[in-house]
Amino acid sequence: MIKIVFFDIDGTLRPFETGIIPVSTQKAIKRAHDSGLITAIATGRHWMEIKNENLIEGMRFDAFVTLDGEYCYVLNSDIVDKAVQNNEHYIHNDEYIFDSSHSENPICYFDPINGKCVQKIQIAPEMIKTVLDLCKEKSFSCLFEEERFIYANFVTDELMQVLQDIKSALPPSIDPKRALENPVFMLIPVMNMEESKKLESLIPDCQLVRWSDGLSFDLTKKGITKVSGIDSILKYYGFSRSESAAIGDGWNDIEMLNYCNLGIAMGNAKQECKDVADYICPTSLNDGISHAVDYIINYNLSNMI
User: Fold this and answer.
1) Residue 142, burial from CB neighbour count under 10 angstroms (0-12, 13-18, 19+)
2) Domain-wise residue ranges, the chain
C-alpha cells in the first residue's frame, strides 16, 4: 500500500506555461488526503519561495523535502488541520519575504516553525569560498539560500532571465561574504554548462544538479538529493520506500521516480523521467495530477482485494 506521495512543484503541480495551479490539481491533492494518503513536497525550491510565489495554493501538504533534500521537515498535523479549516492554504500574502530570520511567528502555515526539521545539510564554507571566488572572477550571479534568508551577490541579465523563466521575484543583493559566516544550504550559480563543469571540478564535496534547460544549477552537498530527503521523511513516519510514490518531470526527479515504489512521470516530463517511470500521466496542463492521484488510489484499492 502506498502511504505517502511526494510531489515536485515546477512542471508538475504548477505548469511552466501558466504559472497557475490548475483547479483539478487542487481537487486531486484533497482527494489524495481524503483517501488516507500523506501528501508531501519534493522540490529544489526554498520554502519561502513556495510562499512568495504561491506555489501550493489551495493544497494541503504535511511534509516538505526542499532544496533538493538539503532542508526537510514535517509539519505538526494539528496545525495543518486548523490551517485548512480556516482556508489558510488559500490565503496568499502578496508581500514578498526573503528574510524571515528575525520572525518569531510563522509567515505561512507551512513555515518550518510549525513542525520538526528532519534533515538539514549545510554547504562547507571552503566550498562556498571557491564559488564566491569564481563568481567574482567571471562576474557570475549566484543565489544563496539560508534557512530563513535568500539573497544574491549581484544582478546580471542572466539571473533576471532565470528568475523570469520560473516566474520568481528578485531577492535582495548583499555582500556575499555573509555566506562564509552563516549556514547556507544551497547555492544557485548562474552560468553555462561549460563553466558549471569547471566549477564542479573545483568543489569535490559538492554537486551541481541541473533542473532546467537554462543557465542555473542547484549546488548542494555531494550525496544529498531528493531521495536522501525522502528517506528522512520516511524514517520520521516509520514508512518503507515500498510505501511511497513520487511524481515529477525534471532531471532532478529521475532518481526519486526510480527510488519510490511508484514513480509517475508527467506527460511533459523529460524523456529520462519517462524512461524510469511506472506510469506516465497527462501533462500538468491537462489534469495530469488528477490522473496520477487516481492511479495511486486505484493501486491501493487493487492491493486491498
Assistant:
1) buried
2) 4-120+225-304, 125-221
Sheet containing 217-221, strands listed edge to edge, beginning at the edge strand earlier in sequence:
150-152, 142-145, 186-189, 217-221, 206-210
125-221 in CATH: which number? 3.30.1240.10
Q: Please name the fold of domain 4-120+225-304.
A: Rossmann fold (3.40.50)
Cell of 81: 488541520
Q: Could you report the per-residue pLDDT of 262-280, keeping only the tens digit for each?
A: 999 999 999 999 999 999 9
Grid coordinates representing 144 are 544563496
* Digit-coded pLDDT (tens) for 64-111: 999 999 999 999 999 999 999 999 999 877 789 999 999 889 999 999
Contact 282, 24 (CB under 8 A): no
- Give the Cα separation of 182 and 177 in Å (integer): 9
List phi, psi (to 5°) of 118: -110, -10
